[in-house]
Structures are given as C-alpha cells and as structure tokens.
Amino acid sequence: MSLFLSILTLTLTLTLFIPTCLSFTVIMSDSGVPSALVDAPQTGFSVNNNGATTDRDEQQAVYDIMKATGNDWATDIPDVCRGRWHGIECMPDKNNVFHVVSLSFGALSDDTAFPTCDPTRSYISPSITKLPHIRTLFFYRCFTDKPQPIPPFLGLMGPTLQTLVLRENGHVGPIPTQLGNLTGLRVLDLHKNNLNGSIPVSFSRFTGLKSLDLSSNKLTGSIPSFAFPELTILDLNQNHLTGSIPTEIGNCGSLMKIDLSRNRLSGVIPDSIGGLTSLILMDLSYNSLSGPIPTSLNNLDSLQALILNGNPISSMIPSTAFDKFKSLMILILSDTDSYGPIPESIARLPNLRILHLDRNRLNGSIPTSFRNVNGLSELRLNDNQLMGPIPFDKEIVWRMRRKLKLENNLGLCYDGRNGFGSDLGSLSDSGIDHCDMPRPGPAQMVQHVATTNEGEPGLANGGISYSMNSTADHPHPPQPLPETSSSSSLSLHQTKSTQMCQTSLHLPLKNTQPPHQRLRRPVSRREETYLSGVI
Ligand SMILES: *[C@@H]1O[C@H](CO)[C@@H](O)[C@H](O)[C@H]1NC(C)=O
Ligand SMILES: *[C@@H]1O[C@H](CO)[C@@H](O)[C@H](O)[C@H]1NC(C)=O
Ligand SMILES: *[C@@H]1O[C@H](CO)[C@@H](O)[C@H](O)[C@H]1NC(C)=O
Ligand SMILES: *[C@@H]1O[C@H](CO)[C@@H](O)[C@H](O)[C@H]1NC(C)=O
After folding, report:
1. What's the predicted TM-score (pTM) here?
2. In this structure, what is the dihedral angle of CA atoms 71, 77, 83, 86, given to the nearest 10 degrees?
C-alpha cells in the first residue's frame, strides 16, 4: 500500500511539473472556446436564445441515456438543453436548433456535479449513437456493480467524437475493435477497468489522437506500431503487455509523457525514443527491458523524469548519457543491475532533485562532483558496492536526512573535513562512520573528538594521531578490527560501526564470515518500511 502511495505521490509531483497533464484526465474542451456552450454562461441562455429548441431526436436519446444510468428524473425536463444540469452541453446550429455536444456522468470530484450513475443497474444506452453532434462522452465509475464490456456500437458514433472517457467503470472483456471507427478521437481514456485482450490495431486510424490512456487494465499482446504525430500522452502502465517497445514510437514526435511501466515488455529501449524531443516524462519501470540505455536519450533535453527502475538493464551507466539532460529532475535507476562507477556527469545535472541508484552493483567511490549537488533533495545509493569517503558536506546531509540512503555498501565513510563533528546524526543510522584519516583534520574536529573523549590517552590535541581506542561512549563491546597488514602509520578506529574504509577496507577481516556479509548492517524494521516505499 505504501508502495502505491508513493507512486501516487510521484505521479502527483510530476503532474505539477507537467501542467498539461491535468487537462487530459478531465474533459478537454475540444473547441477551446467554451463560451459557445450553453452550459457555461447560463444567464445568457434565456436572454439570447428565446425560441431555441433542442433537436427532438436528440432529446429523446438523452432521455434514454439518462434512464439507462438511473437518472429517470431527466425525463421530466421538457428541454434537456435548458435543463442546466452539469454534464450536458449543447450548441446551437445556424437555425438556432440545439444539439447535444457533450455528456458526462459520475462523481469525479466535489466540484463537478455530473449526474451520478446507479451502479447496480447502469448501462450505456445504444441511443448514444443518435447524437450525431456529440464530441465528448464521459463515464466515470458508472458500471462497477454490473461489470459489462464496452459496447461495440460506440464505434457507430463516428468521426465527430473527440473525447471518449470510460474511466474506472469496471468494464470487462476486450476493447472493441470497432472503436477504430472513431477516427476523430483526440482523447481516449479507458483507465482502470478490467479490459483484456490486445490493443486493437484499428487504433492506428486515430490519426489526430493526442492522449491515449489504457493504464491499469489487463491488456495482453504487444504494443502496436503506432505513429500518432499529435500524441502527447501515452499511458499504458499496469497491463500485461509483452514484446518490445516498437521503434515506430519515435514517430510520435509530440509525445510529452510516455508511461509503459509495470508491464512485461522486453528487448532494448529503442534508439528512436531519442527523437522524441518534447518528452518530459519517461517511465519504463518494472518491465524486462535490457540495456544498455541508448545514448540517443541524451537528445531529450526537455526530459524532467527518467524512470527505469526494476528492469534488468545490466550495463554500466553510460558516462556521457547525462551530459545534455539539462531539464532532468528525477532519475530513477534503482534495481537495474547497473554496475561500474557512478558517472561524474550525473552530479552536474543542474536541475536534479531526486536520484535513485540503489540496489545495483555500482562500485568505486561517489564522485567528488557530488560535493555540490545542492539542488538534490533525495538521494539513494544504498545496496551497492560503493566505498570511500562521502563527498557531501554537512549541510547537504542535514537537509536530506532520511532521504539520503547510503546503507549496505562496501565501505562508505565520512570525511571529517566536510564539516561534521563526531556525531554523524542520520549518517550513522546508515552505518556510516568517520573515515580513517591519515592526514590531520581541522582543529574544530579534533576539538570535538577531544571533548567527547575527555581525558582519554592517545588523543593528541595537535590532531596528529586519531587512535580512538576507547569504548567509553559506546556501551557495546569492541568489535573485531580489521587486521592491518600494512605497516603504515594508519591507526585503527574502534567505533560502533564495523564499517571501515579507505585502505583498511581492502584488508582481510579477522572474521569467519565473508566480508561482504559481515559489513552489511541488519536493516531495521523502520527502514524496511521505508524501503518498501521505493518507487
Ligand atoms: C465502422 O465503419 C465501417 C465503415 O468504415 C462500417 O461499415 C461499420 O459498420 C462500422 N462499424 C461500427 C461498429 O462502427
Ligand atoms: C477476458 O476475460 C474474460 C473473463 O472476464 C474471459 O472469459 C476471456 O477469455 C478473456 N479474454 C482474453 C483474451 O483473455
Ligand atoms: C567495479 O566492478 C567491475 C566489474 O563489475 C570491475 O571490473 C572494476 O574493477 C570494479 N571497480 C572498482 C573500483 O572496484
Ligand atoms: C587499544 O586497546 C588494546 C586492547 O583493547 C590495547 O592493547 C592497545 O594498547 C590500545 N591502544 C591504544 C593506542 O590505546
């Protein structure tokens, strides 16, 4: 559940970054000139349209549709276009006859007062096909108690229909291929039903499509080779889609959001995606996509969120891949079996806020370029094979707090010169401790150590020797120390953590457990909860 919530949070966050997203979930005003609609300026209706009447056949059709959703009250309204309920929109023709252009049902929010559906007996009346001027049809949570297929007769509505929203209605069965007849569709939203079968190839007839949302269904088969030049939103997340991402996706040149997450897609991410230069969000997480990440993605200089976690990418993170991502705010590569070093260039992304590289096989040290990641508010590098000093300064650590996750690495440590005293705060919760310091640290640091270990022999106040052999401030018994085979002047720490770093890390441990095991701190219950919230 927390997993879901965190996805939700991310979605909401992203929605804020992409204001255009919002308008697609509700009804789009198709003309962009809503003032022509009778429903909007209600006072204008009676003043300007004396003598106007609603087309009789359409009026009867509206009665049928209203009755089929349990809204029998509507039949008492002598003129539906003057009925002034939210959810019906009409427009006059040149003879001042009103035609129904939009019908909406369902309690979408507190602000919308569309007629609700009686879920126990609602269905879509075939009379819907008797509204030749209708552009928008919207049903939200209408048929949930009586699961039913999407009626194929909707295809008879023809090219006038621009927006078809059948959201969270509990529809079952396949998407009727007849919907391909709706060649004027700009918005098709079938989100969160129980639709199965494959995405009809007939959808390729939607040449003017701007938004396609088939997310949260049970669709199988592969993604057809669509090429919708005007498509801005493609959301197929949470289905059972297989096969690879079609190369033709590169022909959807207006795409701003592509979400194919939580499917069973395989193969590589096609190079052609790099041609989608308007992309703002790309979420391909939780599939079976393999690497490497195409370098063509580098061209996506509008991209704000790249989410690829939960795919067996199994390659190095290309060091040049992030040179041009000047808009990137969110980069999620968790659990992608990525290995090798963290490219320095990542830290130079000027707008990066959230970076998750956790649960991979990344090794080496955290690049020093991370010292200045001031914009970063969330960083996960936990569960990798990183070692060496953490380059961030105290302010960054303090600001991120629990959103900085570094635990379960081979040997990260904190370099005292970056501003901390002996109390590492949230860092020590991640099992991080001070690095061995072959060089003298700043006086301030020494001072602090000296005061906390008051009177302790072996602590030179000149800061030369750092032999902290005392267990005075730690109640637990001393841990076994790594055995030094070098004869350097390095002195060993006795700390509450078993994590050592720098030179001592490479040394064999006087312990029967394999070093890797031994260095892993048990994850606390609280952390586990937190971890399960990973996107
Ligand atoms: C779809 O359109 C074709 C003509 O292009 C027509 O013959 C057919 O009856 C239509 N079917 C539906 C269900 O809309
Ligand atoms: C779709 O689901 C129904 C049950 O709701 C089932 O009878 C049918 O076989 C399924 N079709 C496909 C293509 O999976
Ligand atoms: C990182 O791992 C790779 C193999 O995945 C290895 O070749 C390389 O030497 C390692 N680098 C470091 C710094 O440990
Ligand atoms: C550290 O403690 C060990 C035994 O616990 C002792 O043999 C050693 O002399 C101590 N070293 C210093 C520098 O205090």
Report:
1. 0.73
2. 0
**All residues at 6 or more sequence positions from 144 whose CB lies less than 8 Å from its CB, including other chains:** 119, 168, 169, 170
Containing 450, the helix (H) or strand (E) segment is helix 443-452
**Tokens linked to 263:** 């499917």
What's at 492, amino acid-wise?
Answer: L
Return the SS3 of 83. coil
Ligand 2 proximal residues by C-beta, below 6 Å: 172-173, 196-197
339 touches ligand 3 (CB under 6 Å): yes
CA of residue 469 to ligand 4 center, whole Å: 6
Short-list 239, 349, 347, 340, CA closest to 287:
239
250/268 Cα distance (integer angstroms): 14
Using the mean position of ligand 1's atoms as its centre, give its distance from the Cα of residue 380 in Å.
53
pLDDT for 422: 62
Rg (CA), the chain: 30
CB 102 within 8 A of CB 135: yes
- The partner residues of 325 in beta bridges, in order of sequence, read none
Q: Is the dihedral of CA 195, 201, 206, 209 positive or negative?
A: positive
Ligand 4 pocket test: pick from 456, 469, 493, 495 the residue with the most ligand atoms within 8 Å of its Cβ.
Answer: 469
Ramachandran sector of residue 498 (left: φ over 0; alpha: ψ -120 to 50; beta: rest): alpha
Residue 505 corresponds to which tokens in the numbers above?
């890390």
pLDDT averaged over 10-residue windows placed end to end, the chain, 535 residues: 38 37 30 32 37 88 95 89 85 92 88 85 95 96 94 94 96 97 97 97 95 98 94 97 96 95 97 94 97 89 95 90 85 96 91 96 94 89 94 84 91 76 69 64 35 34 29 35 33 30 26 35 36 29
Would you list the DSSP string of 129-161?
A: GG-TT--EEEEES-STTS--BPPGGGGGGGGG-
